[in-house]
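WARN no homologs supplied; continuing
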Amino acid sequence: MPKDAAVPAAVDAAAPAPPKKVFVHGAGRCGECHEKMFDEWEGSAHARAVSSPIFKAAAAAANDAACDGCHAPLAKALPRAEIPSEGVTCDVCHTLRDPKPAATGAGFRLAIDDMVKFGPRCDLKDHYFHRMGCSPEHRESALCGSCHWWERKGVPVFTEYLDWQVGPAASKGTTCQACHMPTETAVLATGSPRRTGVPHHGLLGIAGDLRTRALGLEVSVRDDQGALVVNVTLTNVNGGHAVPAGLPERRVLVRVRVRDAAGAEGEHEQRALGRVLVDGAGVEVPFWKATRVGSDTRIGPGASWHETFTFHPAGPGKVEVEVVHRALSDAAATALGITDVAELPMTSAKVAFTKGTAEKTVTIRPRPPGKRAR
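OK structure emitted
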């Protein structure tokens, strides 16, 4: 070596390797070609995985980085704020490999170091923007179960996959995708022909109404020596997992009201169904503070919930039963400081009565999932 040749500094040998190139884009970029899927995804819970008010409040209160594993899977691999902020974006599901559902959650890897996008179809050709990856795993419930099963310190939090696995849907071969991503005939991408078997990306069925199709309702009323006896039965007809699902703080509310002949509201009662997590003192708390399950009145697949209500109306009228899905229990909403909690009507029934009414029954049967309303 010539005397005046530069000697490489020792630090060069220890310099970090240049970062790997990653093939990840924001959902809007994907939507330029896959407009239908983008529009459906944009209104889904996946798109709001890190932006919903409930998640923001819960994440701030829990201060647990484990949430990002499923709510913002790209956050560690890709520190660009705009894409992790989209939550479970296109490139999460379409690079997801080796799903392994377990109580520890986030059992998967993201193959973002190549420009292959994986999906359930094996009849598509590569094109200039990305290559096509044939993935039978995208037809299997394990793909969903890699996030939709998580226990925290032995306390069950998300159990949809486990509920499905031990329930009748799994034994019949009905996957999560069959209900949450039913297929239809549509264009996969701009310029491509219409194809059959295209999954809907809204996650709540083609019409976004899975919750309204989950439960069957039966209401019967009868006069019992002047008292009005109301029997209410809810049956989980179409849910492949327990209802309500998702956060343990979610509730199904059953509201029973008596109205007189003029329509004025009289006596009324409410029941809240769900899994209640509690602390050591037995007080309901959000899941990150819980030490055990205090009670569980969710309705399992194919199971029923029954309750009897007794009222004392002065004259004839009508019984109204309303079943709604509530995004948070009252205790959780108070703990998180959330005052505007979303409610979604699920099913309802009305039964007229008079003094001396013999038993009258009204039955409401939900439509099966995967079909549009006519």
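The chain has two domains: 27-199, 211-364.
OK
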